[in-house]
Every structure is written in structure tokens, then in C-alpha cells.
Amino acid sequence: MSSALDRLKNLTSKISGYEMTRKENLKLLEELYKSLHVNQKIDDFSDLFHFKAINLSGVSLKDENLGEIKKGKYLQILAISYDKEAVIKSKNISLAYFGRVENVDEKLKNDVVAFVLRWRFEKSFMTLEHYHNLLESHTSA
Fold first, then answer.
1. What is the pTM of this model?
2. Angle, to 10 degrees, between the axis of helix 106-140 and the axis of helix 2-35?
3. Three-state DSSP class for 57?
């Protein structure tokens, strides 16, 4: 009985930790949204999550070389929208442009990387909630 209770406490602690991390992530993401001037392109912060994906150009997001610049490229935040009714289904939209990546301040580059990673972190929670709700509605029907 004690081990089941310990497992439950451990699970509860993990869930609580994820929710606290998620809340802090959203706060920091919104700060970056403003400081990187993405709010000049997308008026409402919540509208960021209508995009299918957010990516960047000019800097690597791969684990093995995260934040490494790609010389000769331009640093920008790109959003990918998707419209299943349109002739061209997906469209890239520049949310912020910062110029040649070699000329960008290190802190700014790191903030851009953090913005994309934080957006993806929150988007993954939203996707998880979406599928959880789908499963709930499907199994309770």
C-alpha cells in the first residue's frame, strides 16, 4: 500500500511541476513576444497558437548544435499557417526579421531561440490537451 501511495505522490509532484513550468514558460514567452516585437505583427498573444508551427532561419535548433549560427543567412522568426481550403495549403509568415545572423547581438539571438523553443513547449501542451479531450469525448460517447 505504501508503494502505491508513494507512486501517487511522485506522479502528483511531477504533474504539479509540469504545470508550474508551463505557467512560467507562458509568462516568459509573452515577455519575449513583446521584447522581440512579435506583437507588432500579431496583435493578440493567444493568436500565436493558431499557427501550425513556428520556426526560425539563420540559427540551428538541433540538439547537437543548438543556437549555432548559419553564416550567410538572415535571422527571422517564421510562422507556418495552414488552410486546408486554400490552393496552397501552407504559408510562411515572417513574424520578426533581425538581419544577417552574423551581425545580430548574441543576447538577441538567444532570445529568438528561446522564443521558438518556448512556443513549441506550450504548443505541445495544447496538442496534448486536444488529444486528451478527443479521447475523453470518444470513450464517453
1. 0.84
2. 130
3. strand
